[in-house]
Structure formats: structure tokens, C-alpha cells
């Protein structure tokens, strides 16, 4: 980036030079972010623990019928943190999340158990075939709560489209505009945004309702796109 900027301005002024630190500072001030491939998080685990996709043609018409979970990288000043989240597919309510510095099955299980303590267990939980979800520990955790296991097909990112849309939303609306170097501040910011997302943000895909209002609806449940 620095070399490209120098080359651009040196067409007008051969003596122009700019340092890398100044470029980084100015880009941060203007909220300009480089676009590059994200770390590949979905490394396949043991084929022994791969399960079929259960949601094809399924009518999802009530909360806690299907949850969807995934992990996404969160860019920091130096390196990455990893955001684990579980979404209720019917209402789009984020039922649990956690920010970690490592990619481990124990983190995914911790987020799951936190969700179950707060909301009870879902009927089905869908994930990709990443190593955190294709291991003995994850399978045993879901079986312990009587949860049916569903997994995306290989190369079929749309099988988990609900959580993928959440990643796009939180990154485009919050994370890319708040490039914290401090993990504590990033965690506090994500907590604020998820509270806003669940309680105040109206979603077109659920009839312009808020996720929490739909998740807590005990009466006649509207059809969700």
C-alpha cells in the first residue's frame, strides 16, 4: 500500500515520500480497510463425526426448533480474535456468543452450554464441518442434551445462511468501523452491538420485527421467510 501511494504521488512530485506508519494512521482515521482473504476457519475434522444436513425442505416455524452456529474471525491491530455465535433460525435471535483467542472445541461447547442455561436446548443444531464441530467432545455435548446434529454439506455455505448473514451484518455495521487493538474493548463493543441487534434492530427477513420480540412470542407465530 505504501509503495503504491508513493508511486501515485511521485508522478506529480518525484521527491514525494510517505512512511508506512503514516499510511496506516491515515487509513485508520478515514476508516479505510484493506480487503484480503480471511483466515480459513472450517478445517475438516474427523469424518467419523460428520453428520447429514437435516434442514433441507424443513419448515422452521417456532423458536428453539433449529439453532445455527459458526465461528468468524475478527481482525485486530495485531492478529485475530475469533467470534463464536449461535443464532435461533426462526427468530434470528443471537442466543449465545463468545470472543476467544483460540480455535478449540471447548470454546464452542462453552458457548452452547451458556445458551442452553439461558434458553433451554433446541431440537436441532446446525453447523459446518469444521474441526471444532466434527469431534467427539462436540458430539457428546449435543447428545447429552438430546439435540439432533445437522451439518452443512461440503462447499455449501448457503446451508448455514442465517449465521453467515449475521457475520456480514455485524462486520459491516460495527466491527469494520471500530478497529480496536484491545480485546477487552472489542468484547464490550460486540456485547453492545448484539444487544442492539437482538432488541432494537428491525429485520426485513422476519417481517420487520426485532429478533427478541419474535423469539419470545408465545402466541400465534407468523411465517418467517
What integer is the average pLDDT?
A: 83
Number of helices: 7
Give the overall form. Answer: globular
Largest sheet: 5 strands, mixed
Strand-residue fraction?
A: 15-25%
Structural class label: alpha/beta
Order of helices and strands: HHEEEHEHEHHH
Major sheet: arrangement of strands = 3-2-1-4-5
Residue stretches low in confidence (pLDDT < 50, at least 5 long) are: 218-225
Q: What integer value in Å does the Rg equal?
A: 20 Å
**Separation of the first and last Cα atoms:** 43 Å
Percent range for helical residues? 25-40%
Beta strands, count: 5
Notes on the structure:
The chain has helices at 2-10, 20-29, 105-119, 136-144, 161-173, 183-199, 211-215; strands at residues 66-75, 80-88, 94-100, 124-127, 148-151. It is globular. 27% of the residues are buried. Mean pLDDT is 83; it is low at 218-225. By secondary structure, the protein is of the alpha/beta class.
Supply database-style keywords.
about 220 residues; alpha/beta; about 15% strand; globular
Secondary-structure map:
Blueprint: H1 2-10, H2 20-29, E1 66-75, E2 80-88, E3 94-100, H3 105-119, E4 124-127, H4 136-144, E5 148-151, H5 161-173, H6 183-199, H7 211-215
Parallel strand pairs: 1-4, 4-5
Antiparallel strand pairs: 1-2, 2-3
Summarize the model shown:
The protein is of the alpha/beta class and 225 residues long.
Amino acid at each position: 500500500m505504501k509503495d503504491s501511494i508513493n508511486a501515485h504521488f511521485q508522478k506529480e512530485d518525484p521527491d514525494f515520500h510517505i512512511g508506512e506508519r503514516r499510511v496506516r494512521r491515515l487509513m485508520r482515521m478515514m476508516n479505510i480497510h484493506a480487503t484480503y482473504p480471511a483466515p480459513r476457519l472450517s478445517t475438516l475434522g474427523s469424518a467419523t463425526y460428520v453428520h447429514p444436513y437435516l434442514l433441507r425442505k424443513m419448515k422452521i416455524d417456532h423458536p428453539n426448533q433449529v439453532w445455527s452456529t459458526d465461528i468468524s474471525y475478527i481482525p485486530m491491530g495485531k492478529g485475530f480474535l475469533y467470534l463464536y455465535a449461535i443464532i435461533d433460525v426462526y427468530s434470528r435471535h443471537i442466543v449465545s456468543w463468545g470472543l476467544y483467542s483460540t480455535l478449540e472445541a471447548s470454546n464452542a461447547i462453552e458457548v452452547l452450554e451458556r445458551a442452553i442455561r439461558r434458553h433451554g436446548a433446541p431440537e436441532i443444531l446446525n453447523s459446518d464441518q469444521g474441526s471444532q464441530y466434527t469431534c467427539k467432545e462436540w458430539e457428546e455435548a449435543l447428545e447429552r442434551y438430546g439435540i439432533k446434529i445437522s451439518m452443512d454439506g461440503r462447499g455449501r455455505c448457503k446451508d448455514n445462511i442465517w449465521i453467515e448473514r449475521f457475520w456480514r451484518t455485524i462486520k459491516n455495521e460495527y466491527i469494520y468501523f471500530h478497529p480496536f487493538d484491545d480485546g477487552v474493548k472489542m468484547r464490550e463493543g460486540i456485547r453492545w452491538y448484539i444487544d442492539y441487534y437482538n432488541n432494537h434492530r428491525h429485520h426485513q427477513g422476519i417481517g420487520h420485527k426485532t429478533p427478541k420480540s419474535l423469539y419470545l412470542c408465545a402466541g400465534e407465530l407468523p411465517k418467517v421467510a
